[in-house]
Predict the structure.
Amino acid sequence: METLYDFTLPKGYMDSNGELHRRGQMRLATAGDEISATRDPRVLSNPSYLTIVILSKVITEIEGVPAVTATLIEKLFTADLAFLQDMYQKINDIEPPVMEVTCPECGRIFEVPLNFTEGA
């Protein structure tokens, strides 16, 4: 199973020297990543900061940058942030699970999304 994914940012992170960094790697998220991010004081005071904290945990490398931090993620161009959010969703398969079902009347087979929270 692949757990590390390469990426190239559409715009790139520009460091304080004006150098552009575009290539990096993101790993699959763990439950611990998401739990610890929700406990982060920055997220507690501003829930929209959750994305920044989670991305700073799962991006393992941006080429030529010593460490990926929440502060670095904040400095990304919005196009790059959107790109990384989309990549995070894709590699972590954040789509509702589906189940194949058969219609008892016509016999047609189709997929139905599963909702584990319905009725809770």
